[in-house]
Amino acid sequence: MQQQCYDYDEMWKTVYGKLQKKGPVHRHIQRICQKILQPLDYESVLDVGCGIGHNIPLLLNNKAIKYFSGVDISDEALNNARQDYPSFDFQCLDIEKEFLNKKHDLVFCSLVLEHVLDDENALRNLYAMTKKYLFVVSIQGDYKRYEKNEKLQGHVRNYSRGELVNKIEQVGFKIIRKIEWGFPFYSPIGRMIYNLNPQKGMGEFNFMARFIANVLYLVYSLNLFHRGDIIIILAKV
Questions:
Q1: Where do the domains of the chain lie?
Q2: In this structure, what is the dihedral angle of CA atoms 196, 148, 121, 228, given to the nearest 10 degrees?
Q3: How many CB atoms lie within 10 A of CB 90?
Q4: Is 205 helix (H, G, I), strand (E, B) or coil?
Q5: d(Cα 48, Cα 194) in Å, to the nearest integer?
Q6: Which of 68, 94, 118, 156 has the most CB atoms within 10 Å of its CB?
Q7: How many other CB atoms sit within 10 Å of the CB of residue 102?
Q8: Whole-model pTM above 0.85?
Q9: How far apart are CA 34 and CA 52, in angstroms?
C-alpha cells in the first residue's frame, strides 16, 4: 500500500493550529457539533486526531467526564496538548494501524479520515474503542487540488455521497444522525475560490486575515444543514 509522506509535525507548526482556532469552517463545525453533543450521556471520551486539544472544551461541554484521552500521529501536536491539559492522557497512535485496549463512551474523530489511506481499517479500530457513540466529521464532494497539497492539507480522498455512511455501517455502527453542511457559500463557492491558488497557504492571521475569516463566518451562517460537503455523523454501537 502507498505510504503517507506528509509531515504532520511541520503542519501543526505552520498550518493546522491557525486553522483550528480561526478558520470559519472549523468554527461552524464546532458550533454544529456542540448542539449534537449536548443531549448525549457520556463519561469517558477519546478524541482521535486530537491535535493540540482544540476540541477538548467542546467535548467536555460542562459534563461530568471521568476519563479523557486524546491520540494523534503528531508528537508536535501532542506536546502542545499536554502543556495545556497536563491531567489528561495523550498518546501517539496511528489510527490506520492501531487501537487502544480500552473502550470509551464517546469516540470523537473530526477531520481525520480524509487523511487516512486505509480508512476502513481505521473505522474498525474506532469500533474497537467505542462503548456507546462514534462522532465523525469529514469532507465529501469533489477532491480539490488545494486539498492534495501535502504542505497545506494532506488529504488522500474526499468521500462521495453516502460512502462514509456505508463504511461506518459496514464495521458495525448504527447511524443516529447525519448532517451535510456547507451549501452554497462554502461548497461549492468557497471551495472553488480556495482551489484557484492551491499552492497558497493560510498565512499569518493578521488583522486582515482575521477580518476576512470573521466575514466568511457570517456568510457561512447562511449555509444549509441538509446539503454541503462537510459531513457530520453520529453513530452508536
A1: 8-236
A2: 0
A3: 22
A4: coil
A5: 27
A6: 68
A7: 13
A8: yes
A9: 19
C-alpha 136/C-alpha 231 separation (Å) is 8
Contact 43, 65 (CB under 8 A): yes
Residue 166 CA, distance from chain mean position: 19
Checking if the pLDDT of 168 tops 70, the result is yes
Q: Would you say 235 and 193 are in contact if contact means Cβ atoms under 8 Å apart? A: no
d(CA 42, CA 48): 16
The yes-or-no verdict on residue 1 having pLDDT over 60 is no
Q: For residue 148, what is the enclosing H or E element? A: helix 145-148
pLDDT tens-digit readout, 51-97: 999 999 999 987 889 999 999 999 999 999 999 999 999 999 999 99
* 157 and 141 Cβ atoms separated by less than 8 Å: no
| Residue 39: predicted pLDDT | 95
CATH tag, 8-236? 3.40.50.150
